[in-house]
Amino acid sequence: MLFRSNLIMGPSCAVLDPGTPEAFEPYIYEFLRRGEESGANMTPFAGLELEAHIMGIVGAILADHDAIIIPTLTTYGLKAGDDHVDTVVSVDGTALNFYFETMLTVLFNVMSRCPVVNVPSGIAPNGVPMGVQIAGPTYDDPVSFRIAAALEAARGWWTTPEWRPDMVKGI
């Protein structure tokens, strides 16, 4: 998946000059390096075949369900201010190779035919807001939006003060 994402994102990032690292966060360069590395073993056609295979699995699920609802991340959130390059992220006791592996959004970023809406789902024990993504059937955006609106209305997210940071406190 990283290669496929980089195949799409890579050309627009080809102008990045590693000689000016202050222009972008370090994880951007690391993402591109890893994408280039993983792409060395996969042709663009093989990437498209893999995407089609995964879309077949997701399509079969969506044939029997209105939507797929899954967490946005597999962890409580990434540390603010971290470069996300050398930090080891652990999920349920398993150390991951790269922060990107915590993101469950990649599946739907690559398979962009499925409309996806991300909504808040709660606050993690470490105080970080969490979210879920609602992926609807191919090219059927209204389904995802209706489910998201119903979920937000039922849960009342962002309508109570505990959901909003105290902006005055830090001043």
The computed structural class is alpha+beta
Spans of at least 5 consecutive residues with low confidence: none
Overall 3D geometry? globular
Q: Beta-strand level of the residues, as a percent range?
A: 5-15%
Percentage of helical residues? 25-40%
Q: What is the residue-averaged pLDDT?
A: 78
Radius of gyration: 18 Å
Question: How do the strands and helices of this protein lay out in sequence?
Answer:
Elements: H1 2-13, H2 26-39, H3 44-64, E1 68-71, E2 89-91, E3 94-96, H4 106-110, E4 116-123, E5 129-135, H5 141-155
Antiparallel strand pairs: 1-5, 2-3, 4-5
Description of the structure:
The protein has 171 residues and is of the alpha+beta class. It has helices spanning 2-13, 26-39, 44-64, 106-110, 141-155, and strands spanning 68-71, 89-91, 94-96, 116-123, 129-135. The strands form two sheets. A three-stranded antiparallel sheet has the order 1-5-4. The radius of gyration is 18 Å and the shape is globular. The relative contact order is 0.13. The mean pLDDT is 78.
